[in-house]
């Protein structure tokens, strides 16, 4: 709780921007994406490892926005994020099970959303990473199909995923705002695996509006659908989306009703589990449909995205 209070000054300074961001978002033109550069296997692997780091308690427990020169490096005890550990990747703030988040549905409840904001001074990115499903409470939220109106015309978001982002958004926006002047040319990369990937979708959508002069890219892995077709179309039109699925991973097919849809394109890993992923294994699916073409389910496929993505 004390760590969260440390960002209160930044929250006051940027409150007016957050109010504006809560209004209906506008379509935002983006520069053409150079797919070979942004979707090459090294970047897909790097940001998968940032998703892995969000499962690490030591990373999430840095619950205080730190000044330059006092951050700690992002590390994974399991050794599952070597590209991240090799970089000068410094934690700005972490968060885990936010309390008194002031979320609209019931501010008396704690919200089991985990993640962190970091600056990668080697690869020149601001990173926002969200943890995936970590307990039965998260699983219950994943299974909900209830929707709520979201921030674009005709858009509806998964209620549980929206609640997670609403709880974390104040901390995330404050941390980015506090560091943008120091790293003005760094794009923002929002990433996450599983549940974290769905939260990342809603986060990227809103951060693109708030930080409109900055490129905001979305890399998510094994993510369920975050909202309805209008929401998926809106995020797709924003551009800069890299939705990665793996073989017959069942989670991207959830919630599994016609009320939900995915962003496009899809980057489908066609290789099996527990083997290195090569560039030839990644299939670019401009209209999606790679993972959705399977009727089998293999949860091991959900855990293997360029490595064991959910173990720390």
UniProtKB/TrEMBL annotation:
One of its GO terms (biological process) is lipid metabolic process. InterPro entries: AB_hydrolase_fold (IPR029058), AB_hydrolase_lip/est (IPR051299), Fungal_lipase-type (IPR002921). GO terms for molecular function: hydrolase activity. Residues 127-257 form the Fungal lipase-type domain. SUPFAM superfamilies: alpha/beta-Hydrolases (SSF53474). PANTHER family: FUNGAL LIPASE-LIKE DOMAIN-CONTAINING PROTEIN-RELATED (PTHR46640:SF1), TRIACYLGLYCEROL LIPASE, PUTATIVE (AFU_ORTHOLOGUE AFUA_6G06510)-RELATED (PTHR46640). This is Fungal lipase-type domain-containing protein. It comes from Glutinoglossum americanum.
């Amino acid at each position: 709780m004390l760590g969260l209070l440390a960002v209160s000054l930044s929250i006051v300074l940027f409150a007016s921007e957050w109010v504006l961001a809560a209004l209906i978002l506008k379509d935002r033109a983006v520069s053409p994406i150079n797919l070979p550069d942004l979707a090459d296997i090294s970047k897909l692997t790097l940001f998968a490892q940032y998703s892995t780091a969000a499962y690490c308690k030591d990373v999430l427990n840095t619950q205080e926005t730190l000044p330059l020169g006092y951050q700690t490096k992002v590390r994974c005890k399991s050794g599952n994020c070597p590209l991240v550990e090799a970089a000068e990747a410094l934690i700005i703030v972490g968060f885990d099970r936010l309390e008194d988040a002031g979320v609209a549905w019931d501010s008396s409840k704690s919200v089991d959303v985990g993640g962190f904001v970091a600056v990668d001074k080697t690869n020149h990115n601001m990173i926002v990473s969200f943890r995936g499903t970590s307990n039965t409470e998260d699983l219950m939220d994943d299974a909900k199909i209830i929707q709520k109106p979201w921030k674009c015309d005709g858009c509806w978001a998964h209620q549980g995923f929206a609640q997670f982002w609403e709880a974390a958004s104040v901390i995330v926006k404050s941390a980015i705002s506090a560091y943008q002047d120091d790293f003005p040319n760094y794009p923002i990369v929002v990433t996450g695996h599983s549940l974290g990937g769905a939260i990342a979708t809603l986060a990227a959508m809103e951060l693109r509006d708030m930080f409109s002069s900055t490129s905001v890219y979305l890399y998510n892995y094994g993510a369920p659908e975050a909202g309805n077709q209008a929401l998926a179309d809106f995020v797709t039109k924003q551009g800069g989306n890299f939705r990665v699925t793996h073989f017959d991973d069942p989670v991207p097919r959830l919630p599994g009703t016609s009320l939900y849809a995915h962003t496009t394109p899809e980057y489908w890993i066609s290789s099996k589990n527990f083997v290195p992923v090569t560039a030839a294994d990644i299939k670019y699916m401009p209209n999606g449909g790679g993972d959705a073409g399977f009727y089998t389910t293999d949860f091991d496929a959900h855990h293997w995205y360029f490595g064991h993505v959910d173990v720390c």
